[in-house]
Amino acid sequence: MSSSRTPASTTPTGRASPTGRPGCCRPQYGTGDDCGTKNNRRANTRPVVRGNTISNTGGDGIVLRAADHGLVEHNTAYDIAMRPMGANAVIWTINSDDTLIQYNEVHHVRRLSDKGDGMAFDSDFGNNRAVFQFNHSHHNEGGFMLFCGSCGKGSSGTGTVVRYNLSHHDEDRRLAASGENSADLYHHTVYLPAGSTADLAPAPGSGPPPGPVPGASLPGSGRGSGPAVPGQGCRATGDVPSGPSTTR
Predict the structure, then answer these.
(1) Does pLDDT of 85 surpass 50?
(2) Which residues, including other chains, have CB under 8 Å from residue 124's CB and lie 6 or more apart?
(3) Beta-sheet strands, E only, within 148-201
(4) Which strand (E) or helix (H) includes residue 105?
(5) SS3 of residue 192 by DSSP
(6) Residue 150: other Cβ atoms inside 10 A
(7) Element holding 133 (H helix, E strand)
(8) Which residues contact 100 (CB under 8 A, 6 or more apart)?
(9) Which residues contact 126 (CB under 8 A, 6 or more apart)?
(10) CA distance 114 to 133
(11) Which of 49, 198, 202, 211 has the greatest number of beta carbons closer than 10 A?
């Protein structure tokens, strides 16, 4: 998924995977990347990514890998995946615990027509208890949020919380799920313009096994699980986010 990875092998979603990466293996990360049954994860502790402007990238934006208690906040990213070779998202975390991603704005992410992703945010595989809150997502070709807990071989993701975010004019689907245990989603403001066909409810992802997020709740999601009705504006509201400005 990241343009900086060494493409030695690919996952079922077509993403490049590193091979033999030291210190990344644990049960929820799965058996890929030559991990097998190894348990040698060594985490970066409390990394902070704050106050950056990122644009015109070939692939991803900000990726937090093998981190404990990482913080990503007050960043702006736009015109992302402008020269993609695969599936890309903008701000995402993988194989990390207790990540907090908040007060970020992401817009105009590209998505290849034959690839997945293209979202603003992603809780990828091997994560525990990631939180995405008070973020602003708009005009992204792949939508707002991806859950990719099963995107690695034998991998899982657990306990992701997505709350108090603003999504407007995002395309394709608001949420996509490809495996996640006990996710919780609540109190978002979502606006789709007249004529939009983007899905409001979780859509199956491109990785194995496709399907909805187990244990997820979507209170305040408005118009149900189908796409917006053509020719009508569609607004699904919970609590309006109090964090990022909606006029930036």
Answers:
(1) yes
(2) 1, 92, 93, 94, 95, 146, 148, 149, 151, 157
(3) 161-163, 166-168, 175-177, 184-186, 189-192
(4) strand 105-109
(5) strand
(6) 26
(7) strand 131-133
(8) 69, 70, 71, 72, 73, 130, 131, 133
(9) 26, 28, 29, 30, 94, 95, 96, 152, 155, 156, 157
(10) 30
(11) 202
Backbone angles phi, psi at 174, to 5 degrees: -70, -45
Report the mean per-residue pLDDT for the chain.
Answer: 74
Q: Report the alpha-carbon distance of residue 211 to residue 195 in Å, rounded.
A: 26
pLDDT digits over 107-156, tens only? 998 887 666 688 899 998 899 999 999 999 999 988 898 888 888 888 88
Domain residue limits at 242:
1-248
Does the structure show a pLDDT above 50 at 211? no
pLDDT category at 190 given cuts 50, 70, 90 is: confident
Kindly state the tokens that stand for 50. Answer: 């704050």
- pLDDT, residue 143, reads 87
The token pair that represents 51 in the structure block:
């106050």
* β pairing state of 234-237 and 189-192: antiparallel
| Number of domains within the chain | 1
Question: Could you tell me the CA-to-CA distances from 27 to 30, 39, 115, 124, 181 in Å, in that order?
Answer: 5, 7, 27, 15, 14
177, β-bridge pairs: 147, 204
40, 29, 102: which is closest to 71 by C-alpha? 102
Rounded CA gap, 103 and 4, in Å?
Answer: 25
- The rounded distance, in Å, linking the Cα atoms of 159 and 209 is 18
